[in-house]
Design goal:
151 residues; alpha+beta; rod-shaped; OB fold (Dihydrolipoamide Acetyltransferase, E2P); five-stranded mixed barrel; two-stranded antiparallel ribbon; 2 domains
Length: 151
């Protein structure tokens, strides 16, 4: 096979595709391209051993499948260790003190607080009404709604 004027053996084409997919993996976070890269390298091995195209495709398929089911879970476990417990900026609201800018009345579904320059929908922790201007402490956050108590 000739690519850009360079004559390549089939195993070299397989290997170049494998390397290309490893390079693509640098820009993607899911370790999918690398699994395909591993598959291409196993196809390259079959080609280098002089096997037919059918066997090369079988090696590619098995190499890709094994890397998806054996290598990828291991890499994802190591690479994303502790991510599920990572706090976001919104999680840091808990414990902060804010000011009520719209009266909090759970029965009417009204209430907003201002914290660090942001406005958050608020509900009272015990269901009581809290008037405008009252200082409140955030006790919890659920999506875009914070639960507050008088500070």
């Amino acid at each position: 096979m000739e690519i850009f004027g360079v004559v390549l053996d089939t195993w070299q084409v397989w290997a170049l595709l494998g390397i290309l997919f490893f390079i693509i993996e640098i820009f993607t976070p899911a370790f999918v391209s690398a699994c395909l890269g591993i598959g291409f390298l196993t196809g390259s091995l079959a080609s280098a051993l002089g096997m037919s195209y059918t066997w090369q495709l079988i090696f590619f398929s098995v190499g890709t499948a094994l890397s998806f089911f054996l290598v990828r879970p291991f890499v994802m476990k190591i690479g994303y260790k502790g991510v599920e417990n990572m706090k976001t900026n919104a999680d840091s609201l808990v414990g902060k003190v804010g000011k009520v800018i719209e009266a909090i009345d759970d029965s009417k579904g009204t209430g907003y607080v201002a914290v660090d320059g942001d406005q958050w929908k608020a509900v009272s922790i015990d269901g009581t009404c809290i008037e405008i201007g009252t200082k409140v402490e955030i006790t919890a956050r659920e999506s875009i709604v914070v639960t507050v108590k008088k500070a």
